[in-house]
Amino acid sequence: MDDAEIMKRLARGDTRAIGNLYDQYGRQVYALAHRMLNDSAAAEDVTQDCFVKVWQQAGRFDPERGRLITWILHIAYNTTIDLIRTRKRMQPSRFNELPDEIDFTADTAGETETAILAQQVRGALFRLSADQRQALEMAYWSAMSQQEIATALAIPLGTVKSRVRLALDSLRQLLLTPRRKEVDRHVRLPSS
Amino acid sequence: MSDCRHLDEVIAYAFHQLSPAQESVLKAHLATCSACQIKLNEIMETVDLLGLTAPAVAAPDGLRDKVIRKIAEHADQTKAKRFRVAPAWAVAAAAVAIALGSYAVLRVEGLQKLIAGFIQKESAEQSVTLQGVDNPASARAVFAREDGGVRITLEAQGLVPLLPGEAYQLWLIADGKRINGGVFVVDAAGKGGMSTWLPGEVPFNALGVTREPDAFGEQPRGPKVMGSTT
Question: Does the beta carbon of B43 lie under 8 angstroms from any beta carbon of chain A?
Fold first, then answer.
């Protein structure tokens, strides 16, 4: 069952389709929440809440506006941020570099396409300067304010803002310009 | 189009780094600055990709079942909110203008004829017209019986484009209670719509549309923008 069919079923109120959706994207949702919370139980809660919201808003997803995986991860990210704020527990930022390889075993065609996209994003991140990549990752993963990031890195607030701004511009150039979309099509798996 | 001087705040907003007060100020600015609206959309397209780079970690055994069970519980709660239409009650209620806190119902007297017709007719479709509250928006909601429930289809125009994350939400008012009728967004021209299915009978004596801060509310939180008329 492809993404479009799953979302159509969910929009019609068919809760049975949620299992298919979880099989495609559940691991990514849990991984995002776990990365931010460093807490398995809390990551489970976020995953459940995220899929409830996806089910409730299935009719709102518009495939013309973007990929389903990024739509779901957007919901997961916001849900995780809400939990962090609710619990007032600001996890210390992880200054670690991303691993050189993602240990990701894809069980479905959807997961394989997602893994390819993830590798493209990682590849683009590694083309940023170390300073820009660090500032961007802290902004996204740590739920810290810009001032908190500046304090943690012992750099001026303006420098944080500049690094994040430049990082976003560079990532967009690398990932979302028409030239990159052509590369996307080139590596996309043929449908079975 | 050159960047607005509020670009850094827009970026901070995308990363949830603003305080509630700062968010309010920025949202007010976004409503008037197309450069920042465009920039925010671009930033969100990029930011949403970052979630893909989370290091893989095995989800706990049983999480899939928990997710399915939780959604089944929510689905059951939705089904439990069933109402039966009482024609006399619906007609009487339709004659009363009801003020519901921040959510005022406009001009419902014409609905009594519509509701009576909805109950009596065996064919599925009925439609309700909505008009803007101090704005030129309009909409048409069509109710059709389907698979033991009701399919609600709404088409709207003339609405103000939303900020990222916001949604318009349809509410069915019955006996002083608001029932979530679905959410939708609009395009740059202010046109949009939705189609949703609710189980069982779906009574109402008024309809309204509010502008919500997000698409996940079960009660109105934002201002009303449209209300039902004859």
Answer: yes
Task: Please indicate whether residue B109 or residue A72 has the higher confidence score (pLDDT).
Answer: A72
Q: What is the ipTM for the molecules in this complex?
A: 0.82
The Cα A113–Cα B210 span in angstroms is 38
Averages of pLDDT over runs of 10 residues in chain A (192 residues) are 84 86 93 93 96 90 85 95 75 45 50 81 91 94 90 95 96 75 40 40
In angstroms, what CA-CA distances link A25 with A48, A58, B52, B177?
12, 14, 10, 36
B54: which chain A residues are within 8 Å (Cβ-Cβ)?
28, 31-32, 34-35
Whether the CB-CB separation of B67 and A51 falls below 8 Å is answered with: yes
Residues of chain A contacting residue B76, judged by C-beta atoms under 8 Å apart: none
Q: Which residues contact B20 (CB under 8 A, 6 or more apart)?
A: none
3-state secondary structure of B196: strand
User: For residue A125, which residues of chain B lie inside 8 Å, CB to CB?
Assistant: 53
> What span, in angstroms and rounded, lies between the C-alpha atoms of B222 and B230?
24
Between A and B, how many residue pairs show a Cβ–Cβ distance under 8 A?
158
Residue with tokens 């309204």: B208
B-chain residue closest to A37, CA distance: B54
Query: pTM of the full predicted structure?
Result: 0.60
